[in-house]
Amino acid sequence: MNLYFRLFWLFAWRVRHCNKIDFLGKSTLSYRALPSDCDINFHLTNSRYPAFMDLARTYMLSEMGLLKRFLKLGWMPIINAVEFTYIRDIKPFAKFDIESKMVGWDEKYFYVEQRFVSERGLHCIAHVRGVFVCKRKQVPISAMLEEIKFNAAQPELPIEVQKWKSFLQLKKQQNI
């Protein structure tokens, strides 16, 4: 239930009073690990990371100035794949930030890197691959870039994302 409250707080307050970043800028959203977010090992449970990441990506779109526009167009984000690397745990009541950044795209997908950090350092790094859909059809990346009037050079995907992308392709080929 607490994530519903956090979602409401995100839309009711945070989105209305957020910073402005450019399309390739870093978005930072802060939270505190509540006891209800933690498991029997007394740390943030693994299932909470993707839920917090959803909120952080929504906030990132808002900071980019794209959330309202994309919702008006009926564009909804769909996540295709996620990979996590857990480094150290987040204890109950610890304050942490989720840093989200668009790291690139290819002909079909966009890629976002999300980091969980606190005063203790890096806790988790995750990469997300997704698309936007409208009326059950994928919005082409070129249409998204045109809509946001992005005309800078396309960034090269980080090497770890390139390797992950190749790994995802291999898994797909092996399981068709």
Protein described:
This protein is of the alpha+beta class. Helix content is 34%, strand content 31%. The protein contains five helices and six strands. Strands 1, 2, 3, 4, 5 and 6 form a six-stranded antiparallel beta sheet that branches. A hairpin with a 2-residue loop joins strand 5 and strand 6. Helix 1 runs parallel beside helix 2. The protein starts with a helix and ends with a helix.
Brief account:
The protein has 176 residues and is of the alpha+beta class. It has helices spanning 2-14, 48-63, 67-73, 141-147, 159-174, and strands at residues 26-32, 76-86, 95-105, 110-118, 121-134, 137-138. Strands 1, 2, 3, 4, 5 and 6 form a 6-stranded antiparallel beta sheet that branches.
Structural class: alpha+beta
The helix count comes to 5
Work out the helicity level.
25-40%
Q: Write down the overall mean pLDDT.
A: 92
Radius of gyration: 17 Å
Q: What global shape is seen? A: globular
Assembly of the depicted chains: single chain
Task: Measure the end-to-end span.
Answer: 38 Å
- Give helix and strand order, one letter per element, not per position: HEHHEEEEEHH
How many strands? 6
Strand content: 25-35%
| Largest sheet properties | 6 strands, antiparallel
Low-confidence stretches: none
